[in-house]
Amino acid sequence: MGMRKDLQETTKKKTFSEMQKERREQAQRSILISCPKKIPEKKLLKHLCQHGDITNHFFFESFGLHAVIEFSKKESIASLQDASFIPRGETEFPIPFKSRFFHLNLKNPSNQTSDVQCSNQSSPLNANIIKALCNAESVENQINTLMKILQLTEENIRLRYLTCSLIEDIAAAYFPSCTIKPFGSSVNTFGKLGCDLDMFLDLDDIGKNSTTKTEGSFLMEYQVKNVPSERWATQKILGVIGECLDNFGPGCVSVQKILNARCPLVRFSHQASGFQCDLTANNRIAMKSSELLYIYGSLDSRVRALAFSVRCWARQQSLTSSIPGSWLTNFSLTIMVIFFLQKRSPPVIPSLDSLKNLADVKDKCIIDNNDCTFVSNLDRIKPSENTETVDTLLCQFFEYFGNFPFNKNSINIRKGKEQNKPDSSPIYIQNPFEISLNISRNVNESQLERFVHLARESAWILQENKGQSSKTSTEPWGLAALLLPSVPNKSKAKKAGRGQTSEAVKKLLESIKAESTKDPRATRKK
Ligand code: CTP
Ligand code: MG
């Protein structure tokens, strides 16, 4: 269908809120259908066209075959809903919740042929990624290949917005004008296939309706129930919505209410889309920091390239993890990449303070006494004069943080300069908006040491590999060498001989050699 444009291309020049608005509106006109394995695509589309024009559609696998159908008008969905039934089970009883998630039955399943093409929604295997990188021509080429393989596809982004929109329908049963928007890596331009879906329940629009008329002698207020704190209210609301998702939410499974966390949340798995979802409320600053990352990621292609490489490297080296703990997070790493790029001479990207100076009246934003103002219009930011290539920058990134005085200095993207560290935490990265907070407060000394050690080794590997390409090498080189299960430690390898890691590397090498004649892109498709 020719929809595989990358995120940057489709969102260039659009402000974050324009992009979000457009995507949300598109999602509201879309439905999700679980389909039988064999499905005649044309007939299905023809059938659905009875309810109105279809502007877009695609199929994907996740616990069975699914389709996303985008109508050109919202009304088509109401028409389809009118023509759909609540199934009557024999042993089970349905909760009659009419959502935009359907199940399609074939009246004549036997004589159907399937002609659908599935869009891939999951991250390819690690070995396949390394093989593809080994076949690239330069480190720069490797970095771009990595991004192409792992970045969110157009279809995956649509599916993320649709999933939020389906959950919004459920929350709207209680709060009719609430919105649920994706934030974090789903929207900040740094997400990779398979990343979690962070959702933000926004009830604030409800409050905004009060264009308070001060004239006259009366002031009408809603009669409401009061609780002792805002946190309390958030917990109550998320508790109820969590309960709803668990009881009525089609496709929502493993619902966990984690209401005592610093930021209360409901975690669940949306089985049909395959997303692990974290629903939070009252989290406007996180939305603002997602927008900030979106701006940096859209400003200069080198930001995404570098952040992608560093995030993948950290994951492969187990510097980050999906389990919370004393390690670095993707968010912290991305801020480190931004800081590093601000520190180049000339800078690749401007400081947050300069983005604030470019802001206009509309951009002004204060959240809980924190100034979150920065320019939203990308066109107002001057392109960089820095001409360094991404492979140089990647190598320099590792060298820079391999030698950074973490004991003395803090990382501050607001100023674009290091500051004196205000406390004794091993690594201090100032939260860009809540400036008295350290976003890497969780990181302990030994995790930081591992990061520094691996950064130095990686800088060394990249330097050693300079100019080397796949033609002259049968071993993983450049970025591929950095993504191996563990960067081989020279001194340790000498002493201890070939350990477990080397066994894994050996096997991988053999399979690369065996496959080296094949097209690397073939590894992508399932
Ligand atoms: N966040 C924050 N402070 C932190 C951690 C997270 O403000 N200490 C905000 C950031 O805006 C971040 C969002 O919460 O983007 C989501 O957090 P998380 O899911 O941990 O990070 P992602 O950027 O989504 O990356 P990942 O792919 O690991 O999910
Ligand atoms: Mg996330």
Q: What does this protein look like?
A:
With 526 residues, the protein is of the alpha+beta class. It contains 18 helices and 13 strands. It has a five-stranded mixed β-sheet, with helices on both faces. A four-stranded mixed β-sheet has the order 2-3-1-4, with helices on both faces. The C terminus is likely disordered. Bound molecules: cytidine-5'-triphosphate (CTP) and magnesium ion. The site of magnesium ion has 5 residues, from loops.
- The assigned structural class equals alpha+beta
Which regions contain 5 or more consecutive residues with pLDDT less than 50? 487-500, 516-526
The distinct bound ligands, ions and cofactors come out as: cytidine-5'-triphosphate, magnesium ion
Question: Helix share of residues?
Answer: 40-55%
Mean pLDDT: 88
What is the terminal-to-terminal distance? 18 Å
Number of helices: 18
* Oligomer status: single chain
C-alpha-based Rg, rounded: 25 Å
Number of strands: 13
The largest sheet is: 5 strands, mixed
Which key terms come to mind for this protein?
526 residues, alpha+beta, 5-stranded mixed beta sheet, 13 strands, globular, binds cytidine-5'-triphosphate, binds magnesium ion
Task: Please give the structural blueprint.
Layout: H1 7-11, H2 16-28, E1 30-35, H3 41-49, E2 54-61, E3 65-71, H4 75-82, E4 101-103, H5 126-134, H6 139-150, H7 154-171, E5 179-183, E6 197-202, H8 204-208, H9 230-248, E7 252-258, E8 265-270, E9 275-281, H10 284-299, H11 301-316, H12 330-343, H13 352-357, E10 366-367, E11 370-371, H14 390-402, E12 409-410, E13 419-420, H15 445-464, H16 478-482, H17 490-496, H18 500-515
Helix pairs in contact: 2-7, 5-6, 6-11, 10-11, 11-12, 14-15
The site of cytidine-5'-triphosphate has 15 residues, from α10 and α12.
